[in-house]
Design a protein that fits this description.
This protein is an alpha+beta fold and about 100 residues long. About 20% of the residues lie in helices and about 20% in strands. It has one domain: Beta-grasp domain (Ubiquitin-like (UB roll), Roll), CATH 3.10.20. The chain starts with a strand and ends in a 5-residue tail after the last strand.
């Protein structure tokens, strides 16, 4: 089981609790996890990744523990702790300001 923590606005949109558990096939990649998440909760489609390009939305960051995975290839394997469910995959709304 993969554990995913979503930002509050996306949890409200999909009417979810603080953490979602998903079954994901091997290899466990960010693309595979997001495919399963969007298939299970279609209302989230396009909120994390752009519909056309498939790229991560600019003001969302993705973390595994303290490691920022936001700029890694979506096809890179996720860390073992995330792939085994020991740690959650965190999708965090970035904060910008000046």
């Amino acid at each position: 089981m993969i554990r995913v923590v979503l930002p509050h606005p996306l949890r409200r949109l999909a009417r979810l609790g603080p953490e979602v558990e998903l079954e994901c096939c091997e290899p466990v990649t960010l693309r595979a996890v997001l495919d399963v998440l969007e298939a299970r909760y279609p209302v989230l489609s396009g909120t994390i990744r752009d519909h056309v390009t498939g790229q991560r939305r600019p003001f969302l960051r993705i973390f595994a523990g303290e490691e920022d995975l936001s700029h890694l290839s979506p096809d890179a394997p996720l860390p073992t702790a995330v792939a085994t469910g020991a740690e959650p995959l965190l999708i965090v709304g970035a904060i910008a300001g000046g």
